[in-house]
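#struct-pred

JT: dropping the chains for the assembly here, can someone run the whole complex?
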Amino acid sequence: MQLTSHQFKARSREKLADANLQGALKKLQGNFVKGRADRVAELENFPAIRDAAAAIRARTLDHLDLYLEEFERNATARGAVVHWAGTTEDVNRIVCELAAKYDVKKAVKSKSMVSEECALNDALEAAGVQVVETDLGEYILQLAKEAPSHIVAPVVHKSKDQVSDLFADKHHLPRKTGIPELCKEAREQLRPHFVSADMGISGANFIIAETGSTLIVTNEGNGRMVTTLPRVHVAITGIEKVVPTLEDLSTLIRLLPRHGTGQTITNYISVTTGPRRAGDTDGPEHFHIILLDGGRTRLLGSDMQDMLRCIRCGACMNHCPVYQSVGGHAYGWVYPGPMGSILTPTYVGLENALDLPNASTLCNQCGVVCPVKIPLPDLMRKLREKQFEQGLKPKQETWGLTLWRWTAQRPRIYAMLTQIAARVLAVMGGSDKLIYNLPCGGGWTDGRDMPAPQGRTFRELYKASRITSTSRP
Amino acid sequence: MSARENILGRIRTSLRRADGDGVAERVRAHLGAHALSPRPQITGDLGAHFREKALALSTSIADVADVHGVPSAVAAYLSLNQLPMGAVCWSALAGLDWVSHGVVMEARPARESDKVGVTEVFCAIAETGTLMTLSGADTPPVTSLLPETHIAVLHASQIVPAMEEAWQHLREMPDYPPRAVNFISGPSRTADIEQTLTFGAHGPYRVHVILVHS
Ligand code: SF4
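RK: done, full complex below.
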């Protein structure tokens, strides 16, 4: 996916003015936020389960090499082929090579955020392979040539009417207006693709070391189709997704849908181990698993390691006041919200996403709801520090702070300057005592008026009151 | 160096892993222990728990006394929902008396055009109201996936408290782990358009459980 994180501010402004999007984001809060709260309340020992989930993820990362080797050993023993990809380009190359090897004309995909990191669809199309996204949301986005704006509900920014227009235009069928009719139309359009595709491409929510299995959770059932019908199945995932045992997996599965969509469990959980067996009448003949590094090892052993615990539930964005206001596209890459504000700069470079670690009020809503207890605000703060250390902060900001430090260390000058400022601002406030347009502070007064000071500084007033009180008899 | 060595090497360097630090033994012990983490306690009647959760997921349930009651329950469900009286099933169910109940049953994997698929299950999970099926030569996953209606025959004794117990049973199976383990929790659904819940996205529109009590 093309990186546009440097346009965060401009795009945010655009998104704030988009009434459609604002309505959709309101709804998201109602559904996902309330849903999570309800589902968590059902678990009487939720804090203990959450602690265990965080510990499982942390322990696995501490021993990542060993669990990956165990996974590889077991997957290979069951007939799967495990590929290692250092970069997203490597993933694309491997998938294109497999497509050529198996003479693949058409691939059906279930939702995979890692494949979005790789921009895999573009690579496959350039290699002459037709790619069909089959998750309803992703299918809509593919038709509209847009990027997802949420990791769980990718098309949350689009209205039903926009989908109606899009389907009428692309399917050349009478325009439908009901949501069930639109879903049925998509089902009927996609069925023939499932049956005729040569390759199924999926992500993996988890990979399981003890069995060598990959696992996907879906509600629509497209994940089951993609892993069952085509003759080749390719699962692409990040190296951090490994889970040691099926028991550990059970704990994580208890939390993932609850935090993602407010469901106790997703409709389907599909655990696949190796290709079809002797006697089987369905299942792929060839099963390949691609494990992507793509910047992940850089986080290991660093002060950012905790971020690799992420299970991609989306709760942090659902609860984030910034995401709730600007939506996912403003963040400019695959992962929006607080988790994206950490993943984007760490995967693609701090200098390419300067605004993201700052796109947070550090209110810690995200940290409170994260099912694996990632201290998201702390990590964002660390990234801000790194920006400063590496001289990546905007000149204006650094100079401004330097100037402030210089004056703050010189009390007399500081007092004089603030006295002048208090008086000037008081005059600017006029009779209604409000400043509508602050010079050099337009960003602040664009959205609200600034109350004007009274004309004297706190220190002046304090001094004056002490004089009056001590002079009292 | 291959990508594999590169990645594993980077991990080891980052984690400051040294040989003989005992980590490998600890990892092996963890993999073998299958230790349970804290989880909700499922107490009381498992069947009642399963029923409550399954119904909440929009699965419907019919009860029969023994397996011979299955064909009439299937026939009743099909006619109630005005569905065709033809279906495909897993081979283990082929021997039931479908004919006298007016059901034209074929024991073969489902195809694109089949309207109703009847399967058994490996077990069911009370905690979430979920069905667990395994792939195999006689248990093709397509039968619970392609048709618009999936009917599952579940024996009350197959209901386990949670996923953890299901894995324990699975480990005792001869061909463990099977190619595919599919957990099914109600009819296929999507809420992608305006977050409005709609059934029958890609999989079945209806999931009906026939619960056999004997
Ligand atoms: S950071 Fe936590 S809350 Fe956010 S997506 Fe990852 S696991 Fe979920």
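JT: nice. Chain A touches chain B through 104 residues (CB under 8 Å). Chain A has a mean pLDDT of 92.
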